[in-house]
Amino acid sequence: MAERFPKLVVPLESRNASRRVPSRHGPGPFGFRGAGRVETIKRLDYVHEICTVHDYVNEAIKVNIGRLPPREVERLFMDKLRLLLLEAFPNSVVKFESPKVDQGIDFIASLQMPDGPSLEFLVECNSQPRPSQVRYSDVPSVSIKRDFDKETHKVRRSQSWIFAAPFVSPRLAEVCWDRGWGWFDLAGNCRIGVPGLLYLDRKGNQPVHRPSRPDANLGTPEAARVLRALLKSEHEKVRWASQRDLQEATEPGVSLGLVNKIVAHLRGEGYLADDGSDGWRVVDPERLLFAWRDAYRFDRLPRSEWFTLLKAPEIEKAMREVNMGNEMRAAWAAFSAAERQAPMVRQPKFWLMVSDDLADWIREGLKATPVETGANLTLLTAPDRGYLAGAKEEDQAGPCTHPLQTYVDTWHAGGRGQEAAQAVLDRRLKPLWAKITTS
Questions:
Q1: Do residues 123 and 183 make contact, with C-beta atoms less than 8 angstroms apart?
Q2: Integer Cα distance of 428 and 341 in angstroms
Q3: Of 99, 181, 276, 404, which residue is the least packed, with the fewest Cβ within 10 Å?
Q4: Position 432 confidence tier, pLDDT thresholds 50, 70, 90
């Protein structure tokens, strides 16, 4: 099929050469006139035989996608993909054509490698993408198809899928790559791989188009209550029958409107999926935990630094007295909880979490003194009882926060906190999730 679009060959005379590109669109979406525009091209001085390109740059042109017709947006994607491929193969020609059958894609890009096979990229474009659209797309998740020469047994043609969007969020990039798809955006960020032949990985470009803010903020204490209910293995929930069912599992309770807002957001991000009936389920609890961890505001927890002469057994005794006959209101937290739940990192400081009405009482019970330096006890004050929900005794080692809470707190506690948090994830959370999923 004849090429329908003008060829755009990128001269690479210097590392940071500037060239003037004539504007085909007049004062169109980029606002440039007929005089053209100056574009910086980066030369790749060394490219392996198996082309691998890692580039961290910061070059972008703003564009309002919402005001462009679909055909124009598709042309922008073609031009950007052309530039990316020509950086890897500067002496080649990239051709575009429409799919001959309904393959669930928008266009096909092809390129003949020098002394190598032909590369074909089946590109699906989406101007307002959500990770759930990729995870449950009709396009096959197997990203690579190859044709071999019968005589030489070498690859003659390699075909792979690519997802294109104006802006690709980290979550969207993660879902694409897990599915086996390459991806790129209009800023030039990309991750495109053809095993043994090509690997493009570019990050750092400022987005040319950023969608509206997320529908839900996972970093609030109220959102954390819903996330704990979704992730707690004690609920033994492979699926949830309704949002009201989830609302009743939150501690303390939240409004049904907030549950609806968070569930809708997590569905769009591909963390939740319908299970074929009226209910839904958590698809990937580990990645959902990571999303909560990244949004979690550990710095907003009220925190006090104290010094006490009491030893661990005496502190445990004081906490048991506080919790006797009541719900858990004091527990080991962060490093101290991680050390008891999944021993990995030892450090000399005690970490406790108490409900907000017990801070003064616990200080007296522990005979602790506030200090500016030399503290050996860090007290975290829980904003609501959800932070202590699920806390329980750990093999006579005293009450500890739930492993979910231990994980997010320890991850942000500094020092070797991330190492200790990973041990909690590997030894306590993953086995419980696996047990529920396979039961």
A1: no
A2: 7
A3: 276
A4: confident
- Residue 44 to residue 15: CA distance in whole angstroms: 7
Write the burial class of residue 111 (CB in 10 Å: 0-12 exposed, 13-18 middle, 19+ buried). buried
Q: Give the Cα separation of 56 and 205 in Å (integer).
A: 7
By three-state DSSP, how is residue 8 classified? coil
Q: What secondary structure letter does DSSP report for 92?
A: -
Residue 23 per-residue DSSP state? P
Last residue of a domain, one of 229, 264, 295: 295
Question: Which residue among 295, 330, 352 closes a domain?
Answer: 295
**Taking the alpha carbons of 202, 204, 208, 213 in that order, is the dihedral positive or negative?**
positive
Q: Which CATH number fits the domain that encloses residue 429?
A: 3.30.460
Residues 168 and 274 in one domain: no
Question: Residue 238: CB partners within 8 Å, gap ≥ 6?
Answer: 281, 436, 437, 439
3-state DSSP assignment of residue 3: coil
**Which residue range forms the structural domain that includes residue 404?**
299-438
Q: Is the pTM of this model over 0.90?
A: no
Q: Are 189 and 144 in contact (CB under 8 A)?
A: no
- 423 contacts: CB under 8 Å, gap ≥ 6: 338, 342, 343, 344, 345
Q: Which two tokens stand for residue 218?
A: 């996972």
> What's residue 298's pLDDT?
95
Q: Are residues 370 and 275 in the same domain?
A: no
**Angstrom distance (rounded) from CA 146 to CA 152:** 14
Residues 88 and 73 both lie in one domain: yes
295-305 tens-digit pLDDT: 999 999 999 99
Q: Mutual orientation of helices 403-411 and 221-231 as an angle, nearest 10°? A: 130
Residue 353 DSSP SS3: strand
CA dihedral sign of residues 200, 203, 207, 208: negative
DSSP string for 169-224: -HHHHHHHHHHT-EEEETTS-EEEEETTTEEEEEE-PPPS---PPPSS-TTSHHHH
Q: Tell me whether residue 102 is in a domain.
A: yes
Find tokens 């690859």 and name the residue: 155
Give the separation between CA 349 and CA 310, rounded to whole angstroms: 12
